[in-house]
Amino acid sequence: MIVTTKKLFEAAYGKYAIGAYNINNLEQTMGLFRGNVESKAPFIIQISKGARSYTHKKMLEGLITSADVVFPDAIFAVHLDHGDEETCYDCIDSGFYSSVMIDASHEPFDKNIEITRRVVEAAHAKGLVVEAELGQLGGVEEHVSVDEAHAKLTDPRQAREFMERSGCDSLAVAIGTSHGAFKFSGDQALRLDVLADIQKVLPGFPLVMHGSSSVPQEEVARINAAGGDMKGAKGVDASQFKRAAELGVTKINIDTDGRLVWTRVHREYFRDKPSEFDLRPIGKVFMSEYARFIADKNQKLGSAGHLDELRKLVG
Ligand code: 13P
């Protein structure tokens, strides 16, 4: 059942965070639904601009619609990840998405508000909700010094004004994470103090954490042992998710960790079976490993086990 993130956030606020997982293909879709239904967790499917153009935007919609039939117990939102204005309007008009993210965080404050406001008005007119971003996350290749990194964190003093003037329904905040597999060069960690300050000015308002893959060291070691080269990869400490949820984070974005599962499964499989050339046996291994990964992540987010109570709220 497709619901808006708004409904999911109302149920989760202050108690747990909902996993927002990026998908690109059939095998991820199957593993995602299986893992969430097995762990009884609501979830958010994230579709990026790149995922929409990987094959054709209609292909993912078709996969998700079919998965909704195959897994009738699933409760989830379908969300555009990091949209520009044009892609947001395309998703709003498609009638398929339940929420969009407009990412104008690279723009100056007022311009970010102006763009976000336009998308909010178009989305609300069609019953969709909007995530916006204030502050800026680092990228995979970025080597920012600590001072520069601090300059990009969300400024709690701006958060209330941004929310009120833009009309957004949830806010992605920059609190020290970054996208990709190489997040922290030293001992940097999540700035839960900044998160607490944001919650003080936006009590009860759903916050979002991007760049939240944990980059498990065991996964990295297995990839490297099977011919990969990911030395120095490092992610967010998953034991901080529940504290972040208490501080108002209702959605936690995970993409890289899923890619690591894909990489590990494929590297090990072909290392161990060099004469194999059938795509289905390995596809099956991946789907089951991906489902296991999702179920395990939901335990860490605290979202596992909440499906039945949520069904009563949205059903
Ligand atoms: P990771 O790269 O940490 O998985 O973050 C994904 C993300 O934030 C997508 O919006």
Describe the structure.
The protein has 14 helices and 8 strands. The chain has 315 residues and is an alpha/beta fold. The termini are close together. The relative contact order is 0.18. Bound molecules: 1,3-dihydroxyacetonephosphate.
How do the helices and strands line up, and which of them pair or pack?
Layout: H1 5-12, E1 18-22, H2 26-38, E2 43-48, H3 49-54, H4 57-70, E3 76-83, H5 85-94, E4 99-102, H6 109-125, E5 129-134, H7 146-152, H8 156-166, E6 170-173, H9 192-201, E7 207-209, H10 217-225, H11 241-246, E8 249-254, H12 256-272, H13 279-301, H14 307-314
Parallel strand pairs: 1-2, 1-8, 2-3, 3-4, 4-5, 5-6, 6-7, 7-8
Helix pairs in contact: 2-4, 2-13, 5-6, 8-9, 10-12, 12-13
Bound molecules: 1,3-dihydroxyacetonephosphate (13P).
1,3-dihydroxyacetonephosphate binds at residues 22, 81-82, 179-180, 210-213, 253-257.
Compact description:
The protein is α/β, with parallel strands linked by helices. 50% of the residues lie in helices and 13% in strands. The N and C termini lie close together (9 Å).
Bound molecules: 1,3-dihydroxyacetonephosphate
Strand arrangement in the largest pleated sheet: 1-2-3-4-5-6-7-8
Q: What is the 3D shape?
A: globular
Contiguous uncertain segments of 5+ residues: 140-147
**What's the story with the biggest beta sheet?**
8 strands, parallel, barrel
Termini Cα gap: 9 Å
**Average pLDDT number:** 94
Beta strand %: 5-15%
- Along the chain, the helix and strand elements come as HEHEHHEHEHEHHEHEHHEHHH
Structural class: alpha/beta
Question: How many individual helices?
Answer: 14
- What's the gyration radius in Å? 19 Å
Helix content: 40-55%
Number of strands: 8
